[in-house]
Amino acid sequence: MKAARHFDYRIGRRIGFLDGVPGFWWSVNGKLFPDVPMYMVHRGDIVRMTISNTSGDVHPMHLHGHHAVVLSRDGVAASGSPWWFDSLNVGDGETYEIAFVADNPGIWADHCHNLDHAADGLLAHLAYVGVGTAYRVGGDAGNSPE
């Protein structure tokens, strides 16, 4: 099957500001959170994502709301039994090609499961076209961020 969407998730580090604080922060595609554009999908899309890590650290990357299959690691096609996951340890210098079906509408976090890294900006969102949220920062939506 041919993928309807292909996204890059390049993990790195850069100098910048996170919540107004200067530092050397984790980045996604060279951007600092919250300036990382959302990955936008339609329900039913087959999505391919290339996850590469040049950050100098290992990251257990977690995909909320979906299960993915590893297609390749460092350019070598996966073989044998399918490698399904929702969390994938991506070592420094490694690149994974993964795929999943966009079959769970919502706005989902894709982040490093070393939560200190996520809090320091190693976070992106996957959203479905036409799906919104009632949550507003500082608003009365009946929920709150962690």
Q: What number is the mean pLDDT?
A: 92
Q: Which structural class matches the secondary elements?
A: mainly beta
Oligomer classification: single chain
Indicate the CATH topology. Immunoglobulin-like
Report low-confidence residues grouped into runs of 5 or more: none
Question: What separation lies between the terminal Cα atoms?
Answer: 38 Å
User: Please, how many domains?
Assistant: 1
Judging by the overall fold, what is the CATH architecture? Sandwich
CATH superfamily: Cupredoxins -  blue copper proteins
Return the string of H and E elements. Answer: EEEEEEEEEEEHE
Annotation field: number of helices: 1
Helical residue percent band: under 10%
CATH class: Mainly Beta
Shape category:
globular
Task: Give the number of DSSP strands.
Answer: 12
User: What summary fits the major beta sheet?
Assistant: 7 strands, mixed
Strand percentage: over 45%
Tell me about this structure.
It is globular and about 45 Å long. The protein has one helix at residues 115-119; strands spanning 5-18, 21-28, 39-41, 46-53, 59-63, 68-73, 76-77, 84-85, 87-90, 95-101, 107-112, 123-128. The protein has a single domain (5-128), classed as Cupredoxins -  blue copper proteins (Immunoglobulin-like, Sandwich), CATH 2.60.40. It starts with a strand and ends in an 18-residue tail after the last strand. Strand 1 and strand 2 (21-28) form a beta hairpin. With 146 residues, it is mainly β. 3% of the residues lie in helices and 49% in strands.
